[in-house]
Design brief:
alpha+beta; six-stranded antiparallel sheet; five-stranded antiparallel sheet; single chain; 27% helix
Length: 191
């Protein structure tokens, strides 16, 4: 749901969305301050990059900001509970959407075992320390979507871009499986 918080300002929604397999990019802005609430189930993991303002985030309907996204910090949502986002006036965002089934499959492959709990990312992504990989992967996606036109990238290129985004997100942003991904695997016993 969305609520406009400034009744005196004109509401000027601008939303553009492009999708490549299980990954999408949505650019949006609304003009006045707005509050957006998302209630599960939501089938995507979303990474919100914010420009021209700040986004105050309340996870779990606490009534308090639990995280902040802005020019130096993106926000990553898995939506295990209701998330409310308060956008400052003039804020614009670029949101990466990733199908949860797609990212879960990639994570299972990295772990080489089934998942024991739903994937949960840390909400704040530091774009200056750790978030550079996902930012670069998204720029590659944007470039491919622009250069390949309405037909989109050829399947081989699309698969590589998808893989780059999934890998950058799973290896670059902390989550509840990060330690298991990077833990040393025991070597098989000698025969």
């Amino acid at each position: 749901s969305m609520k406009v918080l400034e009744r005196g300002s004109p509401f000027q929604a601008r939303v553009e969305y492009q999708r490549l397999n299980g990954i999408g990019l949505m650019a949006s802005g609304y003009g006045p301050a707005v509050e957006i609430s998302c209630t599960p189930p939501i089938s995507d993991v979303c990474v919100n990059f914010v420009f021209g303002g700040t986004m105050l985030i309340d996870e779990g309907s606490t009534g308090e900001a639990t995280a902040v996204a802005g020019p130096a910090r993106a926000a990553v949502f898995c939506f295990p509970e209701t998330v409310s986002m308060r956008w400052s006036p003039g804020l614009r965002q670029l949101m990466l959407t990733v199908d949860k089934a797609l990212i879960d499959r990639c994570l299972r492959n990295l772990l080489n075992e089934p998942l024991h709990a739903p994937l949960r990312f840390e909400t704040e992504m530091d774009l200056r320390c750790g978030g550079e990989g996902i930012t670069a992967a998204i720029r590659t996606l944007q470039r491919a979507l622009e250069q390949c036109g309405k037909a989109g990238p050829p399947p081989v290129l699309a698969k590589e871009i998808e893989h780059g985004i999934l890998t950058a997100l799973l290896l670059g942003q902390r989550h509840n499986y990060t330690d298991r991904i990077f833990s040393a695997q025991p070597l098989p016993a000698p025969r």
